[in-house]
Structures are given as structure tokens and as C-alpha cells.
Amino acid sequence: MYRPLTFAATLLSVVRGQLVGTETTETHPSMTWQSCTAKGSCTTKNGKITIDANWRWLHVKGGYTNCYTGNEWNATACPDNKSCATNCAVDGADYRGTYGITASGNSLQLKFITKGSYSTNIGSRTYLMASDTAYEMFKFTGNHEFTFDVDLSNLPCGFNGALYFVAMDADGGLKKYSSNKAGAKYGTGYCDAQCPRDLKFINGEGNVEGWIASSNDENAGVGGHGSCCAEMDIWEANSVSTAVTPHACSPIEQSRCEGDTCGGTYSADRYAGVCDPDGCDFNSYRMGVKDFYGKGKMVDTSKKFTVVTQFIGTGEAMEIKRFYVQGGKTIAQPASAIPGVEGNSITTKFCDQQKDRFKDRYTYKEKGGTANMAKALAQGMVLVMSLWDDHYANMLWLDSTYPTDKNPDSDLGSGRGECEVTSGVPADVESQSPDATVTYSNIKFGPINSTFG
């Protein structure tokens, strides 16, 4: 909901470029997943993984000089947005050695901090590919479900192991923007409902103009542009809390925005943009059921489990249902225990009631609500798998009391998890849990009731 998507990184240069360098060959790790037509009838697909271009080494073309170091641009190579795209090249990745990314069979493990000979990497954002040059596009045209296994037993307070869909272009914007020479192969084209402005390149151009270095993240900043698109957060979670959250946008597809009119986490006016930054979330703890999810609870996060998300129907009538499978048992998401908010799934009625009871701004409805989310899902979305900490709100919106001045016993909706309001500070998370990992595996996609049970 308040996900800022500012990923810390301390590589020699970890940024998003549009030209292609030749110092490191880009070899995508392989990861299989399954497309199902009915229960017990699934076909294995040979997918690949690519890391977002924001993490990659960006250097002057034909040389080794960094175009971006820490949170500052090279003024010679990048005096303006267009020159930066012309002068700088993004290079291939050493997935395991530099980024702590390991793919094996149908499994992908992301390690939080990876220390190499010349760099330290923190967090990652990866995409599932259909080929070496195109992202896999998942189309939910009505009555589909998406299933995966997850092990986040090693993710305490302050972390987010996030698996979600965004309305990116399949080729990473390669055809749409002539100055983008890298495309999906090198992880370009990111967008989400926060209209992130920490991206180093947007629409094939640099984001150097207006760039302001972060005050609490030595590797990040905010530029003059942002990149917006619809977002379906299937899974934002650590071992303490989880939420499933659709974010509507109008327009749905990727679009570039200007400065604070972007809205979202990075802008002075959170609600100024074309997207809904808050979403309509279902977090069982926030909905009053505190014994359902966590270590030793009904869904025991000390062990691996299966997450099933069903999209039933189309348009405004679409329903988003959640099941878990663990220890041979299918466990339905619990019904809301908040008086006046009914059900255990996300529907237009649920969102109407929740926003009213929690007294939250209803930007989800303002940006087209479930009807627009259903349209985005039907058009096709890219699967993102990531691991990150939060330099804007310490992940308290997911796993603690937020806003922190609220009383979770009396202010409905402010209690989101058991973590202390002092938890989640990135400096603490990074020093205390450098070996944190999340593992996503056994991805399946198909008609309702075809992927589990």
C-alpha cells in the first residue's frame, strides 16, 4: 500500500541504462513454471529471470567510467536526460556473485545482502521472462488463478518479499522508445502504482534533470519524472504480516509523469497522480484476525506454504479470493472481524465498506477501482519478484501500527501487524539481518481450481 520501492544498493554503479555495454555477457538464469488447463493437467514452461536495470552497472559507452555513483550522476556524461541515454550503457549481470540471486528448477531465491570483491548489493527486483528479449505476459481474462510456494521464514520485521504484477510493456519499452536499446533483456520499462521517481531511466531517457539525492539512502534519489502503471500486489509479506492489494490506475498502461504531479510515495502530494497509491488491501491482521498468519499460527510462516489467488468474474464484479495450502490442508483467508466490513475476499462491496470504516481516502475508486484492475489483468501483466527494505516508512504500513501516532485498539485499520513501531529502520535491518532470504517456487497459472488441491 505505501510501498515506496526504493531499493538500496552499493554497487560501483547500480542504475538503469538504455544503451548496452559489453563488459559482462548477459546470461539469464532459467526458472520453470507451469501453465494449467485443468487439475492435474499442467505443462512446464521454460522461463528466464532478469534483474531490473536500476541495479546494473551503468558506465560511459566504450569505457569503464561510471555514469552514476552512490546517489550522484556523472555531470559530464549526464548533463541532461537525453545526453545521458546517448552517453551511457547498461551492462550484463553476475546474478549469483553480485546480486545473490539463485534460480534452480522451478525455484528462485533472493538474498538480501551480497558482498562481492568490489561491491555490496542490497535487495533486488526481478522479472519472469518468456524469452531472452521479452517478459512473460500473464492475462487474467476471467476465472483464473495464480499459485506459488513461498519460504519467508527468514524475513523478520522490516522486510518485504513481494511477488506482484505490473502493466509493463512486454519488450520493456524497446519498440515504443527509440532511445531504449536495452529492452526487457536488461530489465527496462519498470512502472507501478507509486509512479516511482527513483528510476534512473524512464522512456529511454535519463532521469537526471531535477535529481535530488536521498537524505537517508546513500544509493538512491528522486528525479523529475516517474513511471506509472496499474499494479496487482498478489503478495507483499514477511514472516509477521501479509497483504494482497489491487492498485487501479487511469490510464492502465505505462506512462511517464512529471514531478510532484506523479503522486505516490515519492511526491509531496500522495494523491496527485493517475494511480491509486493506497490500494484496497486485505491484511488479515488489519481486518481484526490476529491469530491467522505468522510463526506458529494457522498459516505457519516458519515453514514453506502455498499461496493461491483467484480472480473470479470480470469488470467491477471481479472477486479476488485467497487460499493457502500447508501440511496437506487448504486454508481459506479468514473473514473480516471488523464490524461493518464483510467477507474474506476483495470485492467492490468489501472495498466500499473497508474505506468507509477505516476512514481512508478511496483513491482506488477514484482511479477506476475493480473495473480498471480487471481490465489491466485481462490486457496482460508482467510478474515481478523482489526483496526490499523501506527507506520511506520502515515497512510499518505492512507489519506494525501505521500511522504510528494511532492507537491500534481504537483507530480501526491502523493495526497491521505485531512489529514494534521502532522496527524496520533500514540501517538496523541491513546490519542485523544481512543473510535474510526469500524463495519463490512452483509457480502455476490456469483456470479456477486447476493449480492446487
From TrEMBL:
* Reaction catalysed by this enzyme: Hydrolysis of (1->4)-beta-D-glucosidic linkages in cellulose and cellotetraose, releasing cellobiose from the non-reducing ends of the chains
Recite the UniProt keywords alphabetically.
Carbohydrate metabolism, Cellulose degradation, Glycosidase, Hydrolase, Polysaccharide degradation, Signal
Q: Where is this region: Disordered?
A: 408-432
Q: A Gene Ontology MF term for this entry?
A: cellulose 1,4-beta-cellobiosidase activity
Q: What class of enzyme is it?
A: hydrolase
Tell me one Pfam family matched here. Glyco_hydro_7
In terms of PANTHER family, this protein maps to: 1,4-BETA-D-GLUCAN CELLOBIOHYDROLASE B, GLYCOSIDE HYDROLASE FAMILY 7 PROTEIN
What is the name attached to this protein's record?
Glucanase
Query: What species was this sequence derived from?
Result: Ampelomyces quisqualis (Powdery mildew agent)
